Amino acid sequence: MSGSDLTLHHAMSLQADAALDGFDWPVALDLFDKIVEELRELRAELEAEPADPVRVLDELGDVMFCVVNLARKLQLDPSEALAGANRKFERRYEHVRKYLHAFPAIGDPARLECMEARWQEAKTKEKHGEPE
Q1: Do 26 and 100 touch, CB atoms closer than 8 A?
Q2: pTM for this structure?
Q3: How far apart are CA 35 and CA 69, in angstroms?
Q4: CA distance 28 to 63
Q5: Do 72 and 16 form a contact (C-beta atoms < 8 A)?
Q6: Are residues 66 and 124 in the same domain?
Q7: Are residues 34 and 19 part of one domain?
Q8: Tens digits of per-residue pLDDT, 25-83?
Q9: Which residues cross the membrane (predicted)?
Q10: Is 11 in contact with 65 (CB distance < 8 Å)?
């Protein structure tokens, strides 16, 4: 098990132990509001002038902890979910990369728009089972 897998497992273990004591959300859907709350706190730290990297890291950790808690409530493995998201990103970004030569230069705001359009194209093809 990798270090990141151990960290995710430790978070799930902490949450499961707390749940045994009754400190738990009744249903998984209840965690959505908590995740949004933590995201708002992270955003507030990012918008602070100047942003404090220690506070930003702390708030990002809270977001991740809540998402792992959601995985636990759904009886899903957060490492497996993240591995799947990594594979999906790789597939879709490979489609974007095929067009790098045709995009505006790095720094041009239109570049990101073009890349996002190709990303959405890859996503649509994937959902319709179209080959790359």
Answers
A1: no
A2: 0.87
A3: 10
A4: 15
A5: yes
A6: no
A7: yes
A8: 999 999 999 999 999 999 999 999 999 999 999 999 999 999 999 999 999 999 999 99
A9: none
A10: yes
